[in-house]
Amino acid sequence: MSSEGITSSEYIKHHLQNMTYGNHPDHGWMFAETAEQAKEMGFWAFHVDSLGWSFALAALFFFAFRRVAKTATTGVPSGFQNFVEMIVEFVNNSVRGSFSAKNDIVAPLALTIFAWVFLMNLMDLVPVDWLPIVAQQIGAAFGADPHKIFFKVVPSTDPNVTFGMALGVFWLMLYYSIKIKGVGGFFAELAFQPFGKVGAPVNLILELVSLISKPVSLALRLFGNMYAGETIFILIAIMYSAGWATGLFGGVLQLGWAIFHILIITLQAFIFMTLTIVYLDMAHQDH
User: In terms of pTM, does the model score above 0.90?
Assistant: First the structure.
């Protein structure tokens, strides 16, 4: 796509734009053909690519792990069964080390978050032009203008996805805080810690800021790291259209960044999982 006569700026903007479906004020329900149309659709527009890849990767995780669970043997495990057992043991040790209460939902939740976020991040290693070109060819076969088809393949570079997961964790934090401590106990924790009843207004402001910052930082940390990584891959891809020498250098950079990025995508999945465990442990602590 970088050699189709578009500028570098247009190339970057095209790759960072989601496939958006929504109710346009002038044209009704439609796929956005420009970034401006996507913005005019407002809050209730759908990012079809982010949702599609999120559900597809969740289904891949579910069916793969379910198959291993149903066919697991007590003898010498197969290669994939051994791999799954390593992941389960790793997550289980993380939960034991960070969660001091008793709740049977925490370990499965942590496993789901780690595997799901890792798979979404892993899409960042797919060359940036491959799947968008396939989407454009499919759209062209149905009579659409290929240049007006947008297709992002890394769900975790979409803040809607990361905030959706973070808000799910936030809801669980509130639910278990109220369930364990009661409404009065939860409010007392917000209003009277750490300065007591005299400092209630200050306590309340500080604790509310701390509470709200948890899902915000959880979402933005994942989004920021993955968005930056995807942008670097796009910038490297532009080098392929600048001649064979620059393209060769770009290939070396892409390989190096991809190898380093394996650490980033794994680390971000681990951080999201660990913070979820820690936040739920804090929700279970009765002060």
Answer: yes
